[in-house]
């Protein structure tokens, strides 16, 4: 077995072992997914289940690559999309924190289960050196949509610094003020709050210029070689696909009940014999299955290239972003087809199909997955991508940051 094949195998096996460990808890996770949608908070039992399965320590020592990340994200999201979203966000920020620590004087937390949140794109920040201590920086800012911020112990946040330009800080989450949450239609339990700080003292060791943090690192551990922002996009795509898979499963289950002459709530008599139903379901399920295959192929291809230290070609980066757009478009269309067959039940509070429809559409509208941008960059990549195209394919990382 070559080094490349071994790295891929370990990444995938690491993730699949966690998904396997979650299987005995499927019912509890699905029940909490519904409860979390109503309460806006993930249950403690779910956190304990994911933690015991190793779901928060997959990024430990950066052994898991993009290939493992997407398989874990899809597996957990098919049971509990909000918990999967938070776990993916925590893992991708944890991986970035490992790069941060290797390049600065920052010391990583000893607990491998510690959770992270982060924001890369706030334009509402300022920082300056303290007049009383040259080794300290005073940071003021607002960071919106910080997913997982209600559970995270640490945060990675972008800042604008007059000396360093775009930069990042690593701070304890409890040093930041927690503002309002999303009033979201879907993924309601992701704890996506607004974080704020006023004259927060940050030591030199907890600040790093973005140009240093996102520089190419071919000798970095395997899990850190795919650009950070692209890793995040892959993980969020996995949550979207897993939620869509659960949605089609719920709809098919309802039709089975209905066909046995037991009236399913919101679906009286809607069997496969009704005009267009089988066609729409076949279309939706096949789109989801194809999206899964494409997503795994993209992630595996990226990992295969970087596994021996090779740099990722510009065309592969723009091509990967293009294919994430294809995944997003197909999942959004599948969700639309399912909602039409589900009918009014998709609009009801407390209905599983409706909830998963909302979760799927919320994930599909994340800025990192915008289809128009991916298709545009992919087409340019076929001709020959410029530096700006490559930067856009793996970003934006922060206002004014061009890089990876």
Describe the model.
A 4-stranded mixed beta sheet has the order 1-4-5-8. Strands 2-3-7-6 form a 4-stranded antiparallel beta sheet, with no helix packed on it. By secondary structure, the chain is an alpha+beta fold. Helices cover 51% and strands 13% of the residues. A hairpin with a 6-residue loop joins strand 2 and strand 3.
Radius of gyration equals 21 Å
Mean pLDDT equals 91
Which stretches are low in confidence, meaning pLDDT under 50 for 5 or more residues running? 262-269, 397-404
* Order of strands, widest sheet: 1-4-5-8
The count of DSSP E runs of length 2 or more, i.e. the number of strands, is 8
Overall geometry: globular
Could you estimate the helical fraction of the residues in percent? 40-55%
Q: Summary?
A:
This protein is an alpha+beta fold and 404 residues long. It has twelve helices and eight strands. The protein has three domains: 101 residues, Butyryl-Coa Dehydrogenase, subunit A, domain 1 (Orthogonal Bundle), CATH 1.10.540; 98 residues, Butyryl-CoA Dehydrogenase, subunit A, domain 2, CATH 2.40.110.10; 169 residues, Up-down Bundle (Butyryl-CoA Dehydrogenase, subunit A, domain 3).
Which key terms come to mind for this protein?
404 residues, Butyryl-CoA Dehydrogenase, subunit A, domain 2, four-stranded antiparallel sheet, Butyryl-Coa Dehydrogenase, subunit A, domain 1, single chain, 8 strands, four-stranded mixed sheet, Butyryl-CoA Dehydrogenase, subunit A, domain 3, 51% helix, disordered C terminus, globular, alpha+beta
């Amino acid at each position: 077995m070559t080094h490349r094949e071994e790295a891929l195998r370990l990444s995938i096996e690491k993730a699949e072992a966690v998904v396997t460990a979650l299987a005995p808890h499927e019912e509890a996770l699905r029940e909490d997914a519904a409860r979390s949608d109503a309460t806006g908070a993930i249950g403690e039992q779910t956190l304990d289940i994911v933690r015991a399965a190793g779901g928060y320590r997959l990024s430990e020592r950066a052994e898991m690559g993009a290939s493992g990340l997407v398989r874990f994200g899809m597996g957990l999201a098919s049971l509990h999309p909000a918990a999967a979203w938070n776990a993916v966000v925590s893992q991708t920020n944890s991986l970035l924190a490992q790069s941060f620590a290797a390049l600065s004087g920052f010391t990583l937390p000893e607990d491998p289960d510690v959770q992270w949140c982060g924001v890369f794109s706030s334009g509402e920040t300022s920082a300056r050196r303290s007049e009383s201590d040259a080794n300290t920086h005073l940071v003021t800012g607002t960071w919106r949509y910080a997913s997982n911020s209600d559970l995270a112990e640490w945060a990675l946040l972008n800042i604008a610094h007059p000396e360093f330009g775009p930069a990042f800080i690593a701070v304890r989450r409890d040093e930041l003020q927690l503002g309002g949450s999303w009033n979201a239609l879907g993924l309601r339990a992701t704890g996506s709050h607004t974080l704020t700080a006023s004259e927060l003292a940050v030591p030199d060791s907890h600040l790093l210029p973005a140009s240093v943090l996102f520089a190419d690192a071919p000798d970095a551990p395997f899990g850190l070689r795919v650009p950070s922002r692209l890793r995040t996009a892959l993980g969020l795509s996995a949550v979207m696909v897993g939620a869509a898979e659960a949605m089609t499963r719920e709809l098919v289950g309802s039709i089975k009940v209905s066909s046995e002459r037991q009236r399913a709530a919101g679906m009286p008599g809607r069997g496969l014999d009704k005009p267009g139903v089988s066609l729409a379901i076949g279309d939706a399920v096949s789109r989801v299955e194809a999206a899964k295959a494409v997503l795994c192929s993209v992630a595996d291809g990226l990992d295969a290239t970087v596994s021996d230290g090779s740099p990722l070609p510009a065309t592969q980066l723009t091509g990967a972003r293009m294919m994430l757009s294809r995944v997003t478009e197909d999942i959004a269309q599948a969700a639309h087809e399912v909602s039409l067959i589900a009918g009014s039940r998709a609009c009801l509070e407390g209905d599983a199909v409706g909830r998963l429809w909302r979760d799927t559409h919320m994930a599909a509208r994340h800025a990192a997955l915008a289809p128009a941008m991916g298709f545009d960059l992919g087409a340019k990549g076929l001709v020959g991508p410029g530096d700006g195209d490559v930067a856009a394919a793996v970003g934006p990382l922060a206002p004014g940051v061009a890089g990876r």
